[in-house]
Amino acid sequence: MARHNLPRTKTPTEKFRFTMDFKNDVKSGDTASAHSVTAKRLDTGADATTEMISAVVRLLNVVETSVQAGTDGVDYEVKFALDTTQGDHFEAYVIVPVRS
């Protein structure tokens, strides 16, 4: 499980793409079979996926999403997950601070 911090804050009105590359995690000969991206508020633990996440796509072992919206003053945890045909499950987390 990898944890990352967004290198800057995000404003509530910004929307941008963000990617997570799992290529170094997936073994040679294995392939991705499923993926997901979810979000939660760190202050309450409430699910914020529908508020923050849109347009999730995967190309090989790279998962991309658009991060949008958010409440000013709240930090969010965005979770990227990837499953493989050989049964491995990988997760990576990005902390997204939202500030005006």
Account of the 3D structure:
The structure is a single chain. The protein is mainly beta. The protein has a single domain, classed as Immunoglobulin-like (Sandwich), CATH 2.60.40.10. 4% of the residues lie in helices and 54% in strands. It is built from one helix and seven strands. The strands form two sheets. The protein has a four-stranded mixed beta sheet. A three-stranded antiparallel beta sheet has the order 2-5-4. The radius of gyration is 14 Å and the shape is elongated. The N and C termini lie far apart (30 Å).
Oligomer: single chain
The termini sit apart by 30 Å
CATH superfamily: Immunoglobulins
Number of beta strands:
7
Overall body shape:
elongated
Counted up, domains total 1
What structural class do the secondary elements suggest? mainly beta
Please count the helical segments: 1
Gyration radius from CA atoms, angstroms: 14 Å
Instruction: Calculate the mean pLDDT score and round it.
Output: 94
Q: Within the CATH hierarchy, at the fold level, what is the topology? A: Immunoglobulin-like
Helical residue percent? under 10%
Instruction: Tell me what portion of residues adopts beta-strand conformation.
Output: over 45%
Give unreliable regions as ranges. Answer: none
Q: What order do the SSEs take from the amino end to the carboxyl end, as H and E?
A: EEEHEEEE
Largest sheet, strands/sense/barrel: 4 strands, mixed
CATH architecture: Sandwich
Strand order of the largest sheet: 1-7-6-3
CATH class: Mainly Beta
